[in-house]
Amino acid sequence: MCKIRTETRLCFLLVMILAVMLAGCGSSPAAESGSAAGGNPPKSEETADTAKSTEKAGGAAQAETARAAAADTAADAMKGASGETASAGETGVQTASAAATGSTASTAAASTASTERAASGVTGSTAEQAKEYAAQSRGLIVIDPGHQQYGNPDQEPVGPGASETKAKVSGGTSGVSTGVPEYQLTLDIGLQLRDELEARGYTVIMTRETNEVDISNSERAAVANEADADAFVRIHANGAGSSAANGAMTICQTPGNVYNGDLYADSRALSDCILNAYTQKTGIAYEYVWETDTMSGINWCRVPVTIIEMGYMTNSDEDILMQNPQFQEKMTAGIADGIDAFMADRTPKEH
After folding, report:
1. What is the pLDDT of residues 310-335, one digit of tens each?
2. How far is CA 339 from the centre of its chain?
3. How far apart, in whole angstroms, are the C-alpha atoms of residue 21 and residue 58?
4. Most buried of 43, 61, 96, 132 (most Cβ within 10 A)?
């Protein structure tokens, strides 16, 4: 009996040992680490996970590429913008970079467009309006290119109410070496001066823009008077019987001018400023400021006025020099510098 019970206990123990061993096989360290059979995921799952990982990495790379591209475009837009400011640039680039995080081409493009708008500084004003506002802040200048293709010998009073008369307008002189007529030189310089002054922010009115006109000296003065110009600048070139004569001069009325002597101080200041700046810029010899009451185009003026005689067309050297395009740039810049100097301590009139 004892023997049977002992064998039964042994069997029971064996069964328990086997059960424990079988239970241990299901929770082995190898299985937990995934290195046992069934530990690795199926190949299809591995591929899917790898694809997801690649897609995520690719998306990040695309987003980074889009951000970089948008930032580059924004930077280019900032460089090309006329109204560039540091704050606009920083805001625009940040906006472009933030939008590109969404990593779509359309978003990046929209961000770039926004950056360009911010960089341009446009607030509803057009470029022409901005130019007009700038011009009003500098002053209104009337330019009179002297003479015209055909002179008009008909007479007109030398001043308001005068009994003395002069030809309405003459044809001027011509280049002794180049043969270029004075009316052509004065128009060339006048148009270049207009462009230079407008670039500096002035409003400019021309008495003529072609040679085929018939405008008397009093009528040219009337253009400046009606515009209430801040300055009336009359462009001429000189001539003399001697080919040795050279240099530049300006002309204004005398203090005792019966027509507009009250404008003498301003006209003299304008004449001084232009002659000083012109001769300094060009290197042409300084002659003098000629004060005379014989010029009808001055006598009819009710605004500050000067005539600049830019050089002698009867002097071969100056004639040739005044036809040089690079030298003409100096001529126009010199006159413009003189106008700047004249207007520096004056408040432009309200027009």
Report:
1. 999 999 999 999 999 999 999 999 99
2. 21
3. 49
4. 96
